[in-house]
From TrEMBL:
It catalyses: (R)-methylmalonyl-CoA = (S)-methylmalonyl-CoA. Keywords: Cobalt, Isomerase, Metal-binding. InterPro entries: Glyas_Bleomycin-R_OHBP_Dase, MeMalonyl-CoA_epimerase, MMCE/EMCE_epimerase, VOC_core. This is methylmalonyl-CoA epimerase. SUPFAM superfamilies: Glyoxalase/Bleomycin resistance protein/Dihydroxybiphenyl dioxygenase. The keyword tRNA processing does not apply. Its EC number is 5.1.99.1. It is an enzyme of class 5 (isomerase).
Length: 134
């Protein structure tokens, strides 16, 4: 059902500093910051030959990333995103197998302009999983 790894998301307390570290120290291609108000985050994508890193920073006081950073002030891995061909079929299969879909269960449009869903970390070995339709 799942396809390739789309990205690994890292919550960061200082988006500009983290982007500069990837650009300067690691020599990566770093995209411009992008606000995602529906998800309460500002994102910066780091382009790698085989996948992407998504740097996440809170957008506003109610951001879910704010509470993550309160618990992890230095930041850390927030979620892993896998590609799926049909997000609704994937959701239905996962729910039938007992996995919990976060939110309303209806896909939202993610940072790549494609439908996404999140799966409860307690159902996936403590890892928040994002599915993105490609």
């Amino acid at each position: 059902m799942i396809g390739r790894l789309n990205h690994v998301a890292i919550a960061v307390p200082d988006l500009a500093a983290a982007a500069a570290q990837y650009r300067g120290t690691l020599g990566a291609t770093v995209r411009d910051p992008q606000d995602e108000p529906d998800h309460g985050v500002t994102v910066v994508f780091i382009e790698l030959p085989n996948t992407k890193i998504e740097l996440l920073h809170p957008l506003g006081p109610d951001s879910p990333i704010r509470s993550f950073l309160d618990k992890n002030p230095s930041g850390g891995i927030h979620h892993i995103c896998y590609e799926v061909e049909d997000i609704l079929a994937a959701r239905d299969r996962l729910k039938a197998d007992g996995a919990r879909v976060l939110g309303t269960g209806e896909p939202k449009i993610g940072a790549h302009g494609k439908p996404v869903l999140f799966l409860h970390p307690k159902d996936f070995n403590g890892c928040l999983v994002e599915l993105e339709q490609v």
